[in-house]
Specification:
Phage tail protein beta-alpha-beta fold; globular; three-stranded antiparallel sheet; 35% strand; single chain
Amino acid sequence: MEDRIRLLLNKYVHDTASRQELEEFFALIRDAENDEHLRSMIRGLYDQIREEDDSVPSYVDEDGNLVFGESALSFTLPPNKPRKNKWAVVAIAACLLAVAIPGYFWMKNKPDNGSIASNEHHQTKKTTDRSEYRYILLPDSTQVWLNASSTLEFPDQFKGPKREVVLSGEAYFDVKHAEDIPFIIHTGEVATTVLGTAFNIKAYPGFNDVIVSVSRGKVKVTRGGQLLATLTKGQQVKVGNKTDEITKKLIEENDVAAWQKGKLVYDDERFEEIVTNLKQIYNADVRIENAFVRNLKVSTSFSRESGIEHALEVLCKLTDSQLQESGGIYYIR
């Protein structure tokens, strides 16, 4: 077990862990809260890693603040635990802080370089670049996985009779249940409301549809106060942004937020929107010069590991178009 923890710690601090490895690491951290032996083992292993590689960016400074690179966050060590010096880093502190202070833990262990913006209403904005995705823990312990080229805005604290956030792009939510305090995600004119459940929302600017898919619990989708759909496990709804079209269907549970598992699934989506999504995921330059295929509806799926060229080749075969590459730019003709 010690070897496995060391491996996960190394991958965590060097930002090379897969999503599955991160989840395993988080589970160990949660277990360590009530297991002194495990906690001591993690602390010791982390100290060893710091001795071997002093470039590891997270540490507790002399004032007791947890530091990610140049960004410091308030943190107090557990009672009866002596404070370590500036360079005696404690990995468990980072994850326990993520549980205690929402919104401060990123899937990538580095500063946001300006992606956090607070206003007088104490709102926080998290963004992802192309080919990047991020884990966020909200103030109520709701977990969010933010996909590429997406933005999530939320308050530093949820107060009042409801919890509200604003999403642009795609995210998977695992909402912390709170009786009589609904959680509402605003995506343009469409609102998705839950009490406690897990679901995916795809709502990129410029796309024709907002797509909501449920993997657990019940979700209510509305627009302008009008109920559009009520979804339960294994159900999906597409709501037109520019039309009144609403399509509700059953989907495979594994296809809800399939992007988290490295699978890209597109079901009856516009060719141009699929290409736009691939550009975001792979940070690639793709230009559609064949106007005919832009609005064609396509259903397909790819493994993310197969790469953008393979994905584009499949799309071109499905639409009888041609793919050419020149100078790192892909042309669809």
